[in-house]
Amino acid sequence: MSNMRLFAQVNPDYAGVTYKVDEWEVPREHIIQLEELGQGSFGMVYKGIMTKLGNDVNVPCAIKTVTENATERERDSFLIEATIMKEFHTHHVVRLYGVVSVGQPTLVIMELMANGDLKSYLRRHRPDYENGEESSPQPPTLKQIYQMAIEIADGMAYLAAKKFVHRDLAARNCMVAEDLTVKIGDFGMTRDIYETDYYRKGTKGFLPVRWMAPESLKDGMFSSSSDVFSYGVVLWEMATLASQPYQGLTNDQVLRYVIDGGVMERPENCPDKLYELMRICWQHRASARPSFIDIIRMLLPDANDNFKRVSFFFSPDAMDNSIQPGNGNISPNISRNLINFIVFDFVFHFVYRIVR
Fold first, then answer.
1. Which residues of the chain have pLDDT under 50?
2. Which of 98, 222, 234, 242 is most deeply packed, by most CB within 10 A?
3. pLDDT recorded at residue 91
4. Burial level of 142, CB count in 10 A (0-12/13-18/19+)?
5. In the annotation, is 168 catalytic?
6. What is the pTM (predicted TM-score) of this model?
7. One domain for residues 24 and 92
8. Which of 69, 85, 111 lies at the terminal end of a domain, its last residue?
9. What are the binding residues for Mg(2+)?
10. Which of 117, 168, 197, 227 is catalytic?
């Protein structure tokens, strides 16, 4: 693992990127800062109003800031990640609204996701969560979990079509809107908030080992297939209301366990269908895992009506990439387990209709 430093600290998709003022620059006077939302990796995050966004006025937004004592390198990293997000335009990836880079403080203006990150959302909806109110929020229903799952898969399918490898997909990096839509959040900005989710391997930088695929842990290899492995861990987080993956194992033990082919057991009360999807995502060979498009196809029977209208999967861009649902193509890396999943899903819905 001598070459792990590059993979642990630098996403190659950011390599060689420098920030330049462009059409995304927003006049500072167009931003109204309101109350604090929480601490971000680089500084405080605020709720705000963007007085003008295209033809819209007074648009609610999230304002990300950099602390006054941030280094020049930290400011550059903050802006570079915003630069990457300028390339993403799809419903299930959090939208960048603009950047204020002229003057201080530097601001990145994002779509407001009122329910915060998915990890915090899930934990707030545990039955034993204490929020000072008479009744705790109800945990998400199975139908809601499947809807969240297909929305995350759709955002990741878009990134895969853009040849972008996330490298750190986890519930903490997914964001929940007011209407409970889940979107892939901004990239690389949550490590400091959830520092215990990352593991420093010697001097090799921080690694989210509990979400990483075996080939990433062993050889530093990252791909859309390794993102699929991480997606399986996100499903496990949803099924457990954001418990820590591989509970009872140290980070070193997790690293060895996953490299040796170990996977997590089925969570308590987890439906067969959901756990089977996790297991398919955790195939040891990267080529045996489904693509995100395959995963969307598997989850389509559980998607709500709005998914067809807003998703990348049903968009003209997806059709241009020859991955539309009607083209008859299935990714060549589909394993026998995936075929079994499709058969299981058909039987599940058939029996469900009979019982009803």
1. 1-10, 189-193, 198, 200, 203, 324-333, 335-336, 338-339, 342-344, 346-356
2. 234
3. 98
4. middle
5. yes
6. 0.84
7. yes
8. 111
9. 173, 186
10. 168
